[in-house]
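Appendix B, record 7
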Amino acid sequence: MRFRIALNLSTLCGYSAPYAQDRLGRRLRGFGNLVARPASVIIRTKNEQAGLGATLEAVFRQRPCPFEVLVIDSGSRDRTLEIARAYPVRTLSIAADEWGYARALNIAASHARGEILVCLSAHCLPVHDRWLGNLLRHFDDERVSGVWGRQLRP
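Structure tokens (predicted):
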């Protein structure tokens, strides 16, 4: 199995899916020179109500749209899960005493169906609607198995 990874700040692995879809289930074609790839966006959370809504809005504005979005939470006591469930995401939970950044991402990766996994923290806001496309375009080169995007601070 070949792994392909797009990273914000973390690493994990994934497996392939037959084709990419947008949120309405339509097959994605291309995006300029980009061949649309089925990407699973994994967002890890714990008490992230302050930023999660804006992050999810930005993720779902992406062109191409993500194949799926998974939110993995570790015992949030605020409105984090309520906010997540207002969007078309799959929510997963991990016990607070079992939490670890890599462990949470690996658990979510085991549930992901995308060809490429994109890791994103809930407080990391994509800066424009080409963020996902900019990460995915590098995978047109078969020699590429992982990419990352730097974090911009206000």
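Remarks on this record: The beta strands are 5-7, 30-31, 34-35, 39-45, 68-73, 90-93, 116-121, 146-148. The two ends are 39 Å apart (CA to CA).
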